[in-house]
What we know:
The chain is mainly alpha-helical. The protein contains four helices and two strands.
Amino acid sequence: MSRDVLLKKRWELVVSKLSNQFAEGDPLDLDAIIYLIGVQELGQIHRKFKKDHKLDLMHIAICRLLEPYGYYEFDYFDEDKWPHYKFKEELPPLKAGEQSVLMKEAIVNYFLESKYIQ
Length: 118
């Protein structure tokens, strides 16, 4: 199976499982999944977040997702237990579609690593 076909199949599995678990089956989009990863990484799952914190959560997720690619490195937890990352390397110039593929690949790898999918 080609890499692209396998990624598509795994991405659909992630979307399906998360949508059933968190959205009563309504398909979650990429941003919603990134947000959920941010909440997971923060570890404050049952807390309600304000709009500005939602953006911070997405930033946490993006840093965590791109860490294995060498773009970010975990630095420390602050006094409120929010993770902070150090910027390591600039992302190469990517078109919108390429950014989406990179994030989907990173999300699939995140859920493979956590054994949420196989």
